[in-house]
Amino acid sequence: MPTSVDHDALSTLIGAVVGGCEIARTELTEAALPDAPQWPTEDDDIDSDAGRSEQTVQVSRPTVDQPTMRFPLASVLAAPSTQEPPRSSPVRVAANGPVSGSGGSAVPTAGSGGSGTPSAEKAGGKSHGAVGPEGGQPRAVPVRVEPKGDQRTTELSVPNAKTARVDQLPNSEPSWFDQAARTEQQRRPQQQSQQQSQQSPRPEPQRPVQTKRVDQLQAQAPARQESARSEQPRPVPPPRQEPRELPVTGYDEEPEDRLATDEPRKSRKPLVVVLSLLVVAALAGATVYAVDEFGGATAVETKPPAAPAVVQPLVKAVTAGGPAPSPAGVKQALAGPAGNSALGTLTGSVVDPASGAALWQQGDTTAATPASSLKVLTAAAALLSLEKTDQLSTKVVQGAEPGTVVIVGGGDPTISGVPGRSVYPGAATLDDLVNQVKQKGQVTKVQFDLSRYAGEALGPQWESADIAGGSVAPIVPFMLDGGRVDQSNVNGVRTGSPGQAAADAFAQRVGAPAASAGTAPQGAPVLGEVKSAPVEQLVDNMMQISDNVLTEAIAREIAIKTGNEPSFAGGVKAVRDVLTKNGFDLTGASFVDGSGLSASNKIPAKLLTDVLTAAAKPAPDDPRTAKLRPLLTALPVAGGSGTLAGRYGGTAARGKGWVRAKTGTLTGVNALAGVVVDVDGRLLVFSFMSASNRDPETEVRPALDVMAAALRGCGCS
User: Fold this and answer.
1) Residues whose CB falls within 8 Å of the CB of residue 706, separated by 6 or more in sequence, listed in order
2) Stretch (H or E) spanning 567
C-alpha cells in the first residue's frame, strides 16, 4: 500500500521535480502503447532514437480513494504560480529539457508548438484543457503546483532502469475530469479498492490504473536531485504489479455519468453469461430429446386409438319385440295399489297398444268425471282436425273515423303483455303490435272487436270463484297472458274482463284514451298483426300446464274449422264430431266444455285409453297415429315436467321418468291418464279415475301414482 503524503510534503516533492528536473519531451508511439488510443500532441512528431533506447519513467495515478486528473502525455508541469492553489491532479512528466531560471521550469502548453516557452496565462486556471483535433477529446492544460510559504522545494531523482510512482496526492477539490472513464471491463467492482477506501464516504469500484510509459530520458538528473533525495527521508514506495499496457481512454462519458453513487455499480455481465449458458443447455437438451423421441430408428410409434367404450343406454327403445305382458300378470301387479281405500270409487283400464289387448279393466265403460283429463280428447281433436302449423292471428285495422283503430280478436289468449314473463313459449307480444300501429300514424281512439266468439264467456256450471282462484277467465278472442294479472304465475289470479284490460293496455301504449267495444269495418286496412305459436305447440303447452283458457280457445278453433259455432256448445260438438269421424266410440261420453272444468262432464275411462292407444301404436300404419303422436310428447313427465313435476315420491318413485300422464283434479275427483314403459321395454297405456272425499294432496293422488308406478315395475308376461 502507498504511504500517505500530506499536502505540504507533496508540494515540496513536486516542487523539487519542477525546479530541478529538466524533463524531456516524450512521444507516445504505437510501439509504446500498441493497443491504446493515443491523444495527439504537438510533441508527437519528435523522433529521437536515442530516447527510445533509454529507460522509461512511469507515473501512476493514486488509488481510487483520491480524486485524480488525467492529462495527455504531451502536457508537462508549468512554472509555479500564485494564481491557483495546488490541485490533487496526477503529474504528467515529459522528457528532461533545459531549465529556464532557478525556481521553475519552462512548461510548454498544448498549443505551444513545442517551443518550450513558458506561458503563465495558458498554464493557470482550472485544468479542463482544450479540445483536441480528433473525436472531440479535451486536451488538458498542465497544472502548476507551488509550495506553500517558506518550504523548500524538494526534487525527486529518478534512478536509471527503475520506475517511480506518485501514488498519493493531497486532497483537494476534485474535478469531474478526475473521475476515470469507465469501460465495460473497468466497471467491475474491485475488492481491493473497497478495502483501501477510507476517506470517501461513498466507495467506487476500483478501476485499473492507467500508466503511461515515458520512452525517452534525454539527460540525467542534476546533482542537486541527489541532494534533494538525501533530504527526503521517506523512501519511494515500490511499484505495484499492474498491467503495463492498458488503453488510455478519453473523456467518453458525460459529467453526470461520473457522479458517485451510493453503492458500487455491479456488472451484469456474469448474470448474462450464466443465463445464456442455461438457455444454450436447455436448447441442446430439447434438441437431443426431440431427436431421440421423434427421429431416428428408435422413434416411438403412434399407437392406434383405443376402441370406443361400450355404451349401455339406460332408456331402451320402445318396441313391440319385448315380452308381452299378460292380463293375469298386470292384474296381479295392480291388485294391491288398486285396493287402496283412499281411491274411493276407481274406474280405469290398461291396454297394450302394440297388440291392442286390454290387460286390466275396472269399470272402464262406466262414465265418470274426468276433470282435466278431458283435455286429452280436445287435444286429440285439434291434432286430427287442424294443421300443426296453423297460427292464431290478432289484427289491428283502420276504424271508421280518422285516428281510430280497432283491435280484432283472433282467438289467441297467449299474447304477452310483458315480454319475458309469459307462461306461453313462443307467444306474440303486445309491444310488437303497438309498434306496428304507431308507425302508421297517430292514434286518438282505440276500439276492440270480440265478435269472433259466440255465446257465454263462462262455461256451464263454472263458478266465478274460479276466476279469482286462477283456474279460468271469461273466454274471449282477445286477451293478454290468458287473463292473468301476474303474467308469470301459472295459477295466479285472473281478471274478470280480459278483453277490456288488454285493449286498455294497447291504448295506453299508443297514447290514446281508454278503449271501448266496437266493430271493425268490412275490408278495413290492416295496420298491425301478430301471430301465436303453431297449433302443435299450443296443444303441448295446454297439456303441460293444464291451461283451461287455452284449451277452450282451441276448442273454438276446432268449431270454426268444422263449421260449428265458436262457443262452448259448438266446441263440444266439434270435438265429438272429429273423434267420431276418426273411429272413436263416444258411447257414454257427455261433456259440456273442452277443458273438463265442469263437474257435469262424464266420460268412460275406455275412451281415454282408446285415444292414447291410437297415438302409441308402434307402427304408423294407422293414419290417426301419425297425427296423434305429438299427443304423447305433450304429456307431463312424472317427477320432471308440468303438473307431474312435483309428484312421484315415496313408494311411487320407481315410476319417476317412466310415466307420462295427464292429470285431472276437481273437488272429490282425481284422474290420471297416460303411458308407461315397463321393465321389459314394453309401452303400456292406462287411465285411472277416482271419486273420493279423501285428501287429494296426501292420499288420492299419491295412490294413483303408485298404480302407474306398479305398471312400470311389471314383468307381467
Assistant:
1) 337, 340, 651, 652
2) none
What is the SS3 assignment for 500?
helix
CB contact set of 385 (below 8 Å; sequence gap of 6+): 558, 561, 562, 574, 578
Do residues 523 and 551 share a domain?
no
Same domain, 570 and 498: no
Confidence of residue 188 (pLDDT cuts 50, 70, 90): very low
Residue 84: helix, strand or coil by DSSP?
A: coil
Give, in order, the Cα–Cα distances in Å from 188 to each of 134, 210, 242, 382, 465: 29, 16, 16, 97, 99
pLDDT in tens, 86-118: 444 333 433 434 433 334 333 333 333 433 433
- Tell me whether residue 261 is in a domain: no
466 within domain boundaries? yes
Q: How many domains does the chain have?
A: 3
Segment 267-313, tens digit of pLDDT: 566 677 777 778 777 776 766 555 555 555 555 567 788 888 887 76
- Do 556 and 705 lie in a common domain? yes
Are 359 and 350 contacting, i.e. CB atoms less than 8 angstroms apart? yes
Domain extent at residue 505 = 393-533
Task: For 615-635, give one letter per residue: b (16+ CB within 10 A) or e.
Answer: bbbeeeeeebbebbbbbeebb
- Does residue 271 fall inside a structural domain? no
Same domain, 526 and 624: no
pLDDT in tens, 224-240: 444 444 444 455 555 55
Residue 435 and residue 510 in contact, taking contact as beta carbons nearer than 8 Å:
no
- For the four alpha carbons of 59, 64, 67 and 73, in that order, the dihedral sign comes to positive
**Residue pointed to by grid coordinates 282467438:** 411
- Cell 269495418, residue located: 521
Q: pLDDT at position 40, please?
A: 44
Please report, for residues 287, 292, 321, 649, the alpha-carbon distance to residue 295 in angstroms, rounded to integers and kept in the order given. 11, 6, 57, 64
Residues labelled as active-site residues: 372, 375, 546
The Cα 122–Cα 111 span in angstroms is 9
The rounded distance, in Å, linking the Cα atoms of 83 and 144 is 9
Q: Is residue 319 part of a domain?
A: no
- Report the alpha-carbon distance of residue 109 to residue 122 in Å, rounded: 7
The SS3 call for residue 413 is strand
Both 663 and 610 in one domain: the answer is yes
Q: What is the pLDDT of residue 47?
A: 44
